[in-house]
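Notebook p. 47: complex prediction with adenosine monophosphate.
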Amino acid sequence: MTQDNNQVVIFLGPPGAGKGTQAERLAAAHGLVKVSTGDILRDHVARETELGQQVAPILAAGQLVPDEILVALIRDRLSSMEPVRIIFDGFPRTQAQANALDLLLEELGAPVNAAVLLEVPDEELIGRIVERGRQAAAAGQPVRSDDTEEVARRRQEVYRQETAPLIKYYQQAGRLVEVDGTGSMDEVYGRIENAVSVARSR
Ligand code: AMP
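Predicted complex, structure tokens below:
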């Protein structure tokens, strides 16, 4: 890590690309907190909070939860963080979220260091998601309501329309780090470590 105590990394990439797993590992290796908005929302659904009841049908349909809700969650999460050492998994997912995040981070003096784009061919993604659902079921773990083939396809579409434009946004900001997301988990992780350390030393 650099002398700068603040570190902000974003994981971009389509559903099924492996963001959660890889973000978790990078966070553990560098003393960063992984914030997965999908996990936070699923936790609300499981606890049947007011927010959980509101968002459950949206998650099950593979659509995006409104920006205001996400921005409020992230604002809350960042407010108690000093220094800001964070990896975002699944946030931002829209241009409005990216703009709001930039403003929040500017206030904290902790700009985005790297936006890691995990690239996996479309034809692999659906298979990976359906397999994740199958494995969870086989292990007796809860199966995500959105890990079915039909909803997985909708999530890819939503990604392409709403989230993929952020690739250009972070590229123009000079923050984009593209990583091949195919191969074993260790191979992908090694590529991420390399790419992020190159990005940091720039
Ligand atoms: P994930 O676990 O990242 O695949 O997210 C699962 C679901 O949670 C998504 O399909 C959305 O319904 C919702 N979600 C997670 N993060 C966001 C976000 N940043 N903006 C809107 N909806 C989100």
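Notes: Residues 15, 37-38, 41, 58-59, 62-65, 70, 90-93, 97, 146, 155 surround adenosine monophosphate (CB under 6 Å). The chain has one domain: 3-193.
Next step: compare against the earlier run before touching the bench.
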